[in-house]
Amino acid sequence: MRKFRISRSESRSLAYWERQAARYFDAALTDDEERALRRFLASPAGADARFDDVRAVMGFLVVARRRHEAAAAAWPLARRTLSLRLRYAAAAAVVVAVLGGAGGVALWRGQNVCVAYAGGRKLTDREAVMQQARASLRAMERPADVPDIEAQLGDMLATPAAAADTLP
Fold this sequence. Notes:
Layout (H helix, E strand, L loop, with lengths): L13 H12 L5 H12 L9 H60 L4 E3 L2 E3 L2 H15 L8 H8 L3 H7 L2
Antiparallel strand pairs: 1-2
Helix pairs in contact: 1-2
């Protein structure tokens, strides 16, 4: 265990160290004064309960500083690792896109078949199916001499003035 010694200039009264602790919380200490306060707090004289909060804050800051320094030292490695992860992710995305596209095309080609049933038989020839579709549409057409629904509704809902205009 390392013993901490305080120089003569640092062996001051507890009131002095209390003032220094207050200045520490005000961020008014120089680096040398802060080091002296740290040495005092590590000494047996600084073990007083009045300095518990200062020791806790300083201990927290020391740990945080060490973690920050360790993280800064590991940053190039983390950056390389991130770069590799991004490359692997991009390669995986390309593979998924290619395989998905190939699978989609295969599925589309497998489902893109024209089928019609006419007269109880199955037709798969594209032209024959299209002829059947055109014939079905022609069969559903309304003859030109039959009025459509708009004309019928217009006749039913015509106002008497408009009906009088149409009378001979």
